[in-house]
Design a protein that fits this description.
The complex is a heterodimer of chains A (290) and B (266). Chain A has ten helices and no strands. Chain A is an all-alpha fold and 290 residues long. Chain A is flat. Chain B has eight helices and ten strands. In chain B, a hairpin with a 2-residue loop joins β1 and β2. Chain B is globular. The chains are: A mainly alpha (290), B alpha/beta (266). At the A-B interface, α7 and α8 of A face β6 and α2 of B.
Chain lengths: 290, 266
């Protein structure tokens, strides 16, 4: 074998100098650019929509107020959500909180009952055969169709509204939970069998985590429906709440107030959805698809 | 008189029945396996290898016949017959450590303290060289690493017998060789009884003391049992030219491709 030092190398070694550490300004700039690329497009589209809306509704025969008109009429509602100027004259923030309270109770109950019954239906073939057809029929009943019945049963507006939330939100939670439980891979059941997990351990350690992505999908759909239903229910039941506010504004022809309220409702609905999605990521430790 | 083998499979039959159709999968399986033995089961796909393993594991009940482990009848799954599943079956919401710890907690809750259970878990992860990745989740590690964790979880139950269901089937050739070496090492260290299902002839000859060769289904049974009289520790490279190895390999190949060639379902 020839001595290595005397033979010419087959290829020259190219030394690569590592790139010098990037300076702070460049880092700052790239951060700014990435933030801008997220913020600028929605701001642009929003401006465009407002502009078109302004043009369409500023003519003399316009039936709806233009954005500038909304601002002139209802800037107090936008700027101060938490004023109290009388028993019925309060800020939109308070009204939204009242509605949210109803949603919280109704949705919370729906989540508890939905997950419990969904687990039963997912686990037991007989429970599924018995209950599933009934659920499939009941879940198509529109939320407001329940209102007269619940008003008759509870004889009070507030529990009726909560019941409507409950009965609207429970179906997606229940059905998704049962599908999630039914879809637990046989592998996980085998692991549980080899480890001899008992029923309670199986429920907490395999069933719930495995079905969690499904359950959270159900919860997200449920909270969206609950928020849809509360506005409609409050329009009919009256009292304090964002739904009744819209109805009241309509009766007193304050169209600008209605538009502000719509923006509030949309924004709160969005926040609720993100809240449940965020909770899902925390609970399932990122294994749920978002 | 020879004493009864550690694991005794006695006249096991399995027929799956669904509605009017019944499918006779396994017929008259009789074999005894000694303590500390490494046995492979090889056969064409669909010959009921996995069914046999599931019967030993207790996950599937036999139609007739029975399995005795250490003179006790097997009729339900349990941690004394730990299974390494083909597709690892790690729980994706738990870290590597938590996956193994869950088994440790369940099996040794009464007999080991919290600190001892932690040490035991880490020891098993060390054994499969996975301690460095203990805080990662299954989705964040490679297929070979997942299978290592699966083996660690099975070993952590301190089973009387370790059942491996095509453990390396889904892995590439290099990773597979690496894991085979690991399994040989573990078998040498712990001297436990292992039954492995495989359809890789080299793998069977390299790892096993005996190879159980299954005939084709329906009504598959044990066609032949081959003793692999190679001394341990076995070295992959040295065996390439070893006559015993070559003979054993030839015997398995002849069984699988001459006498019991795979027949396409007509």
């Amino acid at each position: 074998m020839p001595d290595a030092s005397t033979t010419t190398p087959a290829a020259a070694v190219v030394t690569l100098t590592p790139p010098r550490s990037v300076n702070r300004r460049a880092v700052l700039r790239s951060k700014l650019v990435s933030t801008a690329s997220v913020v600028v497009p929605p701001v642009l589209t929003l401006t465009l929509i407002l502009l078109v809306w302004e043009i369409l509704c500023s003519g003399p025969g316009a039936t709806l107020p233009a954005p500038s008109q909304v601002w002139r009429d209802s800037s107090d509602l936008i700027l101060d959500p938490f004023f109290v100027a009388g028993s019925q004259d309060i800020g939109l923030g308070w009204r939204v909180l009242t509605s949210l309270q109803r949603v919280a109770i109704g949705f919370g109950l729906a989540a508890l009952v939905g997950i419990a019954v969904g687990t039963l239906v997912g686990q037991s073939t007989w429970a599924m055969r018995g209950l599933d057809p009934i659920f499939q029929v009941l879940r198509t009943v529109p939320p407001l169709a329940w209102l007269p019945i619940s008003l008759a049963a509870f004889r009070d507006a507030n529990p009726s509204a909560i019941f409507v939330i409950f009965i609207t939100a429970i179906w997606p939670i229940l059905i998704n939970t049962s599908v999630g439980i039914r879809n637990i891979p046989q592998d996980y059941r085998n692991v549980a069998a080899v480890l001899r997990l008992n029923q309670i351990e199986f429920f907490w350690k395999i069933m719930l985590p495995s079905a969690a992505p499904y359950i959270f999908t159900g919860l997200r759909i449920g909270v969206g429906l609950a928020w849809l239903a509360i506005v409609a229910a409050e329009m009919l039941t009256g009292g304090v709440g964002i739904g009744f506010f819209i109805w009241d504004a309509w009766n007193s022809s304050k169209l600008s107030d209605i538009i502000v309220a719509l923006v509030y409702i949309g924004f709160i609905g969005f926040v609720l959805d993100r809240l449940i999605a965020g909770l899902a990521t925390i609970v399932t430790r990122g294994t749920a698809a978002n | 008189m020879k004493q009864a083998p550690y694991l005794q499979i006695d006249g096991v039959e399995k027929t799956f029945t669904r509605g009017d159709t019944s499918n006779h999968v396994l017929a008259d399986i009789n074999v005894g396996i000694d303590n500390g033995e490494f046995v492979s089961i090889i056969g064409h796909s669909g010959c009921g290898k996995s069914t046999l393993l599931n019967i030993i594991a207790g996950l599937t009940p036999a139609t007739s016949g029975g399995v005795l482990l250490d003179n006790k009848e097997v009729n339900e799954p349990g941690p004394d017959r730990a299974v390494v599943f083909q597709n690892h079956s790690l729980l994706p919401w738990l870290t590597v450590y938590e996956n193994v710890r869950m088994a440790v907690d369940k099996v040794f809750r009464a007999t080991k303290s919290r600190a001892e259970r932690h040490d035991w878990t880490m020891h098993k992860l060390d054994l499969v060289h996975m301690a460095h990745a203990k805080d990662r989740r299954p989705a964040e590690i490679s297929g070979g690493m997942k299978q290592r964790v699966g083996i660690a979880r099975a070993l952590a139950m301190e089973p009387k017998i370790l059942l491996l269901d095509e453990p390396f089937g889904a892995l590439d050739a290099l990773t597979r060789a690496h894991l085979q070496d690991s399994v040989m090492q573990i078998h040498a260290t712990l001297k436990n009884t292992m039954i492995m299902i495989t359809h890789d002839v080299d793998e069977a000859v390299l790892l096993s003391d005996r190879i159980i060769m299954m005939t084709n289904g329906p009504a598959a049974t044990i066609g032949e049992i081959l003793e692999v009289a190679l001394p341990r520790p076995r070295k992959r490279l040295e065996l390439v030219t070893n006559t015993t190895y070559i003979k054993a390999r030839e015997a398995v190949l002849k069984f699988l491709y001459e006498r019991h060639a795979f027949v396409e379902a007509a």
